[in-house]
Amino acid sequence: MKRTIACLLLFASSAAVVWASSDHYPLDKVKIDLHDKESLQRGAKTFVDYCVSCHSAKYMRYSRMAEDLGLTTAEVTQNFMLTTNKIHDPMEITMRPEDSKAWFGATPPDLTLVARYKGPAWLHTYLRTYYLDPGRPTGVNNLVFKDTAMPNPLWPLQGWQTLVKKGDESSDLKLTMPGAQSPSQYEQTLDDLVNFLTYMGEPAQLEREKYGPWVLIYLAVFCVIAYFLKKEYWKDVH
I need a surface site. Which of 49, 175, 201, 229 has the fewest CB within 10 A? Predict the structure, then answer.
């Protein structure tokens, strides 16, 4: 009994910490549509262009991505495979762990499951709220993840933002140096990237949803058959 209570208290305290960290800055509303293959393809392209150089996705294979996203082997080989020439390889990086630790202070984490433990809204808000901070070693900071060690990977697209204080406890961001994309275009890029990261966290979700109705129909039919079998077996029991 004591062990159960201790586990419950530990879970409650952990949940409180997570809730407090996610509630510090209001998270964006994100619409995830895993059936939008064009969005997933754009997100995959952004991921391999700006993320795979440092972050791996070792639980996702290029061949699986091609099949699920409606891409041909030639399209994936030409446009997505930057670190390997084998279609069945996972999305690994060429950077050595010891080098990444020396450059960044820690080895960048694998991103295959990042959308599952961080959440799409957190990822979207995090990638949107970088701002210039001369006091940080990388020259930038983040409203969602204070004192983040990772520089803004999408700064060529978003540009640079500065922090504008609105009061003692509130802040806002101002775009002071535009990037290659307008704010609306960058918002679309984030939507596509987070959509892809969400897909990558559970690639079987689309297949599971496809077979789900058939499983429910089977269970419904089986229940009817089981009901009549029960009546037949118990009809002589008084």
Answer: 229
* Structural domain count of the chain: 1
Return d(Cα 8, Cα 177) in angstroms, integer: 49
Q: Is position 58 within any domain? A: yes
- Tokens 């961001």 label which residue? 173
Tell me whether residue 197 is in a domain: yes
Instruction: Say what the pTM is.
Output: 0.77
* Confidence check: pLDDT of 18 > 70: no
The reply, when asked if residue 7 is annotated as ligand binding, is no
CATH number of the structural domain spanning residue 49: 1.10.760.10
Question: What SS3 string covers 220-237?
Answer: HHHHHHHHHHHHHHHCCC
Residue 181: what residue type? Q
Q: Note the Cα 177 to chain centre separation in Å.
A: 27
| Domain assignment of residue 22, yes or no | no
